[in-house]
Amino acid sequence: MTTKTAWGPDRRVVASGLGAAAIAGLAGGSAAAQTVGLEIIAAGQPGDGDDQLARAVAEGFGVTQLLPRAMAIDVPRTPDAAAEFLDGKRPRASLMVLSLSAVGALTIAGAAGRLRQFRPVARLIGERQPIVVRADSPYRTLDDLMAAIARDPAAVRWAGRPLGSADHQLALRLTKAAGADPKRLSYRAADTAARVAFWALKGETPVATGALLEFASQIRGGTLRALALASPDRTPDIDIPTLREQGVDLAMLNWRGLVSRGAVSSALIDRFGEAMLRVSRYPGWLQMLDQRFWANLYDEEDAFERFIAEEAAQVTRLLTEGGAI
Fold it and tell me: The sheet that has 118-127: what strands, in order across it?
C-alpha cells in the first residue's frame, strides 16, 4: 500500500530514492537530538506562499526521514515573526522561510538590519507573478498598460499584497520602467491573495499582481487576462509572454529560501543544508515546483548570503524611490 503526499508519491520511494546510507548519515550524532520536532516558521497567513513552502519542506524532511517530525508554524506579520525567531523565543530548533516580500516588510518596518542576523541555509524557489486585468479591461495589451502608466501613474490603480511585498515592488518597478515617478503609484494593499483576486474580478482595481497559482484558474477560465509574466522565463503550463519578450527590460521572482539564526552551530546549519539539498533533488519535489508554477532557484549557504545582501540593498533603494520609507 502506498502513502500519497502533497508533493510526492510514496514515503518508501522517497526514502529509497535518497538512499539508506544518506539517511543514516544525517540521522546520526548529537545534532539529531536538536532537530526532533524541527519548526519551520512562515510569516503571514495560512495558505500564503511562505506557508506553502514551509509545509512542503516539513513534509519533505518527514517523508525522507532526514529530519523527522518537522512542522510548519505560521506567525502573523513578518517583523514580529523575525523578532520572535531571531531572539530565540521559540524553544525548539527552528528554521524560517525568508522571501523577497519579507525583505521588503522588514525594510518598511525599519528592521532591515535584522537581515544580517539570519544564518542562510539555502535559497529554494522563485514564485512567478503575472500582471492581470479583467477580461473586459481597456488594457488589451501590455503596451496599453505601459502607455497609461506613462501618462498618469496615479490613474492606474494596482492591487497586491501589503506594502513592501513582491507585488508592491513589481508595481513600483513597472512604474519606473514606464518612465513615470514611482512615488505617484496608486496601490491598494490586501491582507490575503484571495482579496486581491476578488478586487481584480470585481473591477475595483484595474490591475493586479500576485502569485501565478492564485490567478491560474481565472486566467484559464477567461475571467482575468494576463498581460505579462514578470519572471525571466515563461511557464509551459499557461501561455503568458514575459515582460522582456514584450520589450520591457524587467524580470523578477518572489524568491524564497530557508534561514536559521546566529546562535545555531555551523554543524547544525550544515545538517539543515544537506537535508534540504537532498530533498530538492527528489523528483517529487521538482514535480511540486511545476504544479505551483515555482522556479527552481536552489543555491547554497554562501551564495544565498551574498544574494540576500544584494537584494536588501536593491529593495531599500526601490522603496526609498517609491516613497514607502
Answer: 71-75, 39-43, 94-99, 254-261, 118-127, 294-300
- Give me the CATH number covering residue 102: 3.40.190.150
Q: Name the domain boundary from 246, 270, 303.
A: 246
Q: What is the pLDDT of residues 90-125, one digit of tens each?
A: 666 789 999 999 999 999 999 999 999 999 999 999
Q: Which of 246, 273, 295 finishes a domain?
A: 246
Radius of gyration of the chain (CA): 20
pLDDT at 35: 63
Give me the long-range contacts of 51-59 (CB less than 8 A, separation at least 24). Answer: 52/292, 53/97, 53/124, 53/125, 53/256, 54/97, 55/6, 56/6, 56/7, 56/285, 56/288, 57/95, 57/97, 57/124, 57/258, 57/276, 57/279, 59/5, 59/6, 59/7
The pTM of this model reads 0.90
Same-domain status, 242 and 136: yes
CA-based nearest residue to 95, from 125, 75, 65:
75
Residues 122 and 17 in one domain: yes
Q: Which residue's entry shows cell 522582456?
A: 244
Query: Are 196 and 269 members of one domain?
Result: no
Domain extent at residue 197: 130-246
Name the grid cell of 207: 490591475
- Distance between CA atoms of 86 and 261, rounded to whole angstroms? 6
Pair (316, 299) in one structural domain: yes
One domain, residues 112 and 189: no
43-82: buried (b, 16+ CB within 10 Å) or exposed (e) per residue? bbbeebbbbbbbbbbbbbbbbbbbbeebbbbbbeebbebb
The whole-angstrom distance between residue 219's C-alpha and the CA centroid of its chain comes to 21
Asked if residues 199 and 209 have their Cβ atoms less than 8 Å apart, the reply is no
**pLDDT in the model for residue 91:** 63
Q: What is the pLDDT of residues 291-306, one digit of tens each?
A: 999 999 999 999 999 9
